[in-house]
């Protein structure tokens, strides 16, 4: 089993506290607070990192610049939350008007790189959309990025052997400058999420 992430239970509490604080520092926008999340008044920087996408190509911090990014953390062996959320994101992208859709990219960031090879991610993410980007890499690099994104996760042994991964279910919104700009939180509904992605663009 992979080593436990250093960003675990204590980080989960810190994440919840951080999101609660952020609720009081929302960036003003024409539609006000997002229906299913928050926009930070002060976007937070993301440190340099070096990962790979599902094609085996380098995926670094520069890949998060130039347009908006919605990052969802998860793993391909996830039984419910991950496939459900990716299915909603697929529906959302289909609902968005082309000019709006082209301003967003969807990234599925694995928190289980030992099992989620580029090949595994390619097959898994491709099932939902060819446009979605699967990202994996070295555990230390993932630890660093998830810390900057305020994503928490931990490995939990299963009685039948092996392990599962408990992880933050929030979607991280990254602005075209490569900064953490907000979060979407479950439960996810396609119509509401589509409206929030439009609002995020209008507020930028």
Which strand order does the major sheet show? Answer: 1-10-9-4-5-6-2-3
Low-confidence parts = 4-32
What is the count of helical runs?
6
State the distance separating the first and last CA atoms.
Answer: 42 Å
Indicate the overall shape.
globular
Structural class: alpha+beta
Overall helicity: 25-40%
Radius of gyration, in Å, reads: 16 Å
Order of helices and strands: HEEEEHHEHEHEEEEH
- In total, the number of strands is 10
The averaged pLDDT comes out at 88
Summarize the biggest pleated sheet.
Answer: 8 strands, mixed
Strand content: 25-35%
Map the helices and strands.
Elements: H1 9-22, E1 37-45, E2 50-53, E3 58-60, E4 68-74, H2 81-95, H3 98-101, E5 104-110, H4 118-128, E6 133-136, H5 139-149, E7 153-157, E8 163-167, E9 171-174, E10 179-184, H6 190-203
Parallel strand pairs: 4-5, 5-6
Antiparallel strand pairs: 1-10, 2-3, 2-6, 4-9, 7-8, 9-10
Helix pairs in contact: 2-6
What does this entry look like structurally?
The protein has helices at residues 9-22, 81-95, 98-101, 118-128, 139-149, 190-203; strands spanning 37-45, 50-53, 58-60, 68-74, 104-110, 133-136, 153-157, 163-167, 171-174, 179-184. The chain is an alpha+beta fold. The chain has an 8-stranded mixed beta sheet with strand order 1-10-9-4-5-6-2-3, sandwiched between helices. Strands 7-8 form a two-stranded antiparallel sheet.
């Amino acid at each position: 089993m992979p080593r436990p992430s250093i960003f675990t239970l204590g980080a989960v509490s810190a994440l919840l506290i951080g999101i609660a604080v952020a609720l009081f520092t929302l960036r003003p926008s024409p539609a006000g607070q997002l229906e299913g999340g928050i926009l930070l008044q002060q976007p937070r920087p993301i440190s340099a990192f070096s990962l790979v996408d599902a094609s085996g190509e380098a995926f670094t911090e520069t890949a998060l610049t130039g347009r908006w990014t919605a990052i969802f953390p998860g793993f391909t062996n996830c039984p419910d939350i991950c496939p459900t959320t990716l299915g909603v994101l697929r529906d959302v992208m289909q609902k968005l008007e082309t000019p709006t859709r082209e301003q967003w990219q969807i990234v599925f960031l694995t928190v289980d790189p030992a099992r989620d090879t580029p090949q595994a991610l390619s097959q898994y993410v491709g099932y939902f959309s060819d446009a979605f980007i699967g990202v994996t890499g070295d555990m230390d690099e993932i630890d660093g990025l998830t810390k900057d994104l305020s994503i928490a996760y931990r490995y939990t042994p299963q009685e039948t052997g092996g392990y599962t991964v408990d992880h933050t279910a929030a979607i991280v919104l990254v602005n075209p400058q490569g900064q953490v700009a907000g979060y979407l939180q479950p439960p996810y509904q396609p119509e509401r999420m589509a409206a929030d992605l439009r609002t995020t663009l209008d507020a930028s």
